[in-house]
Every structure is written in structure tokens, then in C-alpha cells.
Amino acid sequence: MPNYLDASALTKIALRAESVATGPCNCTRTPLDGWNSQPVSLDEGRLEEIGTLMVDDDPEPSYREYLPGDLDYWSPNAPITPHFFPYNRCNVWQCMQCSRLYLRYTEGGGYFVDRRIRAVNSALIQDVPL
């Protein structure tokens, strides 16, 4: 199991990554500021898993969302709240070329599976309790 990251640890590594990830990279071809289906153009070989937001002893993470105001799931300004869906089902990945961080999880429905990805923005991380 990857190393568990709480909101504080995620913020620290996000700030560190943002300080070095300044130039363009192949991982940024498709804007990933909000949740997206993982683009085919993203070379997964460039990503390294560095942690998880999934609590190890939680057999069924909550599906509750935290979306204040008029924000929705797809909004690039939606807060990153590790205790809430979908963040509580995410692993944290880093581009080995530019150091940018991404959250990834698999959305599953009755007839589909969709790998979703979102870039980590340290300013949006919030430690909101359930």
C-alpha cells in the first residue's frame, strides 16, 4: 500500500512540486485543473505513485462530497478535500519529468469504468472533517 498522505502532508509535497514544476511538459497537453477522464495523450510511464489519500483501515470510504457554493465535481476551483469523495479514493502520482502532482482514481458504474485524473493545486487543499 502506498504511503498515506493527510491534507497537511499533501499540501507540503504540492508546494514543493509547484516550486519546481514551472515549464511545459508532455503531461500538461490536456488541462487537468478539474477532474477529467484520463487523456490518451498522457504517458503513464512518466508517472510515479508517491502516496494515497485512502485511509488504510476504512473498508468503505464515504461517497459524500464537499462542494461549497455553486461549485460542482468538475469545477477547476472545487476544493481538494481528502476526507470526501472522490479524494478519499485517490492515489497521488508525480510526473517524473516535471514534478507536477496528480490525483487519480477509477470511477466505476454499472456499465463503465473511467480512470479520472486531476492536477493538484496546493491552494485548493482543505482539511475539512467529515
What's the SSE blueprint?
Layout: H1 7-20, E1 36-37, E2 47-52, E3 91-95, E4 101-108, E5 113-119
Antiparallel strand pairs: 1-5, 2-3, 3-4, 4-5
What does this structure look like?
This protein is α+β, with helices and mostly antiparallel strands and 130 residues long. The chain has one domain (7-124). It is 11% helix and 22% strand. The protein is built from one helix and five strands. The protein has one helix at 7-20, and strands at residues 36-37, 47-52, 91-95, 101-108, 113-119. A five-stranded antiparallel β-sheet has the order 1-5-4-3-2. It is globular and about 35 Å long. 26% of the residues are buried.
How many discrete domains? 1
List the total number of helices: 1
Biggest sheet: strand arrangement:
1-5-4-3-2
Number of strands: 5
Global structural class: alpha+beta
What percent of the residues sit in helical stretches (DSSP H or I)? 10-25%
Largest sheet: 5 strands, antiparallel
C-alpha-based Rg, rounded:
14 Å
Distance between the termini: 23 Å
The fraction of residues in strands falls at 15-25%
Question: What's the overall geometry?
Answer: globular
Poorly predicted segments: none
Please, what is the average pLDDT?
Answer: 92
Question: What is the element string, with H for helices and E for strands?
Answer: HEEEEE
